[in-house]
Each structure stands twice: as C-alpha cells, then as structure tokens.
Amino acid sequence: MINVLIVDDNRTRVEVVVGEISKAGLSPFVNLVVCESADEARLELSAKFDLLILDVVLPKKVDSTPHPTNSMALLNDICGAKKKFIRPTLIIGLTANVEELDNYKAEFLRSVTVVLDGSLYSSDWKYSIMGSIKSLLDSQLKVIQKETDKLLITVHGIRTYGKWQQELKENLNKYSRDFNSVDFKYGFFDIFSFSLPYLRNRKAISIARRIASVLDSSADKDIYIVAHSYGTYILSKALELCGSEVKICSVILCGSPLKHSHDIEHIIQRSEITINECGTRDGILVLARCFLLGLGDAGRVGFTREHTSSFMNRWHKGGHSHYFDDKGTPNFYQRFWLPLMATGEKPISHDDREPYLTEDVVDIGIKFLTVLKPILYGFGFYFLVKFFVGLVVG
Known about the structure:
It is built from 15 helices and eleven strands. The chain is of the alpha/beta class.
C-alpha cells in the first residue's frame, strides 16, 4: 500500500486521477487523501506520504483566492529542516495555467521532482502520474519480497475442486511474484458424507494433519491462510495439531459452517489478524445450521466475540461463494485480501447488514429449527434402530 496526497482545488482533475487509479485496478493498493487548500494539506503532512501531487496555483484556505505563493509556502514548510512536516518521497507539481507554470517552474523544481502541465485538454500529465504511482508500488513490493519469505495456504470446501485457489494465487503473483503457495485439495467431498459427523470429522482430521505438517515445517516463514466453507472446519482442527512455534500473519475464514459460538481462540492466538468474512445471503449455511448436527452459520452471522486488533467479522451482501466472483474492478479478493497479503496493509472493517421486514420471523424460525435439530435426529435414530431390530427379530 502506498500513500498518495493530492492537494488540488480542481475537482475535475482530482476525479480524473481517482478514475485512472480505479481503471488500472490499483485502488486496493493506493491510500488516497485529497485536500483543496494549503492549510488542509498541512494537517495531513504530519504523516508520511509516498507521493504528493501539488497544484502550483493553490488557495491557502478552502474557497479563498488561489495563488502560487500559497503552494510555495507549503513546499518551504515541507522541505524545511526545522519544520514538523514530513517530506513525501516524490513530489509532482501540477497546473493548468501555462503562464504561471513558466513563472514558477524553476522555483518549484528546487523542491519537487517534476512540474507538469495539468490542462484537462492534455493526457500526458495523468499518464506521468500513473507511471509514478506504479513505479512506487513496484518498488515497495520489491522491498517486501526481499525482506520476507511468504507462504500462502488455501483450503477449499466440499462439492468443489477449489478452482478459486489457482485464481487467487495468480492474482497475488501479479503483485508479489516470490509468494510460495500450498493449495490443499482433497477431491469432491459429497454432501452425504459431510452431513454425518463421524465421516466429516474423519476426513477433516486426515487433511488437518497434512496442513499441520506444512505449518510446522514453515514456522520460519510469513504465513497467510485462506479457508472457505468446510476448509474453515478443517483449518480449525489443523491449528490444534501444529506446534506451538507456528505463528501466522493472517487467517481469512469465509463461508464458515462452524457454529457462531464455536471457540476459535486457538486460531486467534496464533495469528496476528483473523478475519471472518460473512455472506449475509448465505442460504447454504442456514440449511447447515438448521439440519446438520455439529454445524452452524458463523460465515453468515459472524462469530460471537468482541472485535479487537487481532479479530474481526466482516459482513458482505452475497451468498456462499460470492468471495470468488470475478464481478467488479477490483473484485472481492482484490479489494479485501490482496492488500493484506501483498503489502501488509491493515484490514478495514466492513458491514453491509441492513434490517428487513421479516427479520424477526426468520431469526426465530432458524433458532427454533436449531433447537429442534437434535430431537429430530434422536427420533430418526430411534426409528432406524427399531426398524433394524424388527428385521432381525422378524
């Protein structure tokens, strides 16, 4: 993630820059701050920015008269050794006023990297800015790649072959080519076996042992994990099996069929940040909670625990597998996961939940079926035993 500060009262020009960043798919990797005056910029420049885009003709305060002396005063504050402001890594001067550009270009060049003609009739300036942003991002990623040895572990769910694992890896490699990855696959696991606790646990433990083995042998690496659906169930068991020296940078759970009351403390303690992605329209998890023993819908309603610096639930409008849709630019994992994994950016909270008219009825119905579930299973088991006893006696 690079930090970019635009100080420009020309809103149309600012919108062009924002649009170009979005079009290039770089929005998840660029933290953009916009100011319209020199005084606004001074409030921001106590933080470190990688790039400053500065209008040559700028107002001192919002809606006051723009003048180059305001920009020059700001530059002097930024570059002055005794001032409290932090000089950005790269400074680009920008103006649509050609006369002012000629008058102040030499003075500006003492403090900035380049001054561009920012006329809206020209495209050169925006290409230069985008080139600078891409160059800064590439440099940051190269430093990260040299300093760290990263490992991505992915675990897919049932009734799938985990095609998203390869797609996620390819997208990540665009930004961090030295990322090693291990995709845990176990073939197509049918819904019947999944619904029986004994078969479900047996399968989970066999895969969990493989994951724990990889984690133990990679304890010296920066580890990132993404698990979907049944994969979150498997991962929970794997992190109970691996050695105490294993530490993880981030764990991302999505579409989890674990109960919302499930104890995930063993996951949180091992990871710097654990994120539980929830689909508010995940009907599959509603069925799991209502009809399958030992399962719930933590990937829909979230885990019941406080949000801290090391854990958060995030709620999104979508179903069980919407995390891997290619819709939108950027798509879901480009927006929410790649910045965390590629540049170590801190995750942002997100909540798309909205109340709806029949919410109380739906919630009561789900809770009623959840309570009724073991009773139904008990009756089913009783009649099944009675049936087989009848066959033997008969």
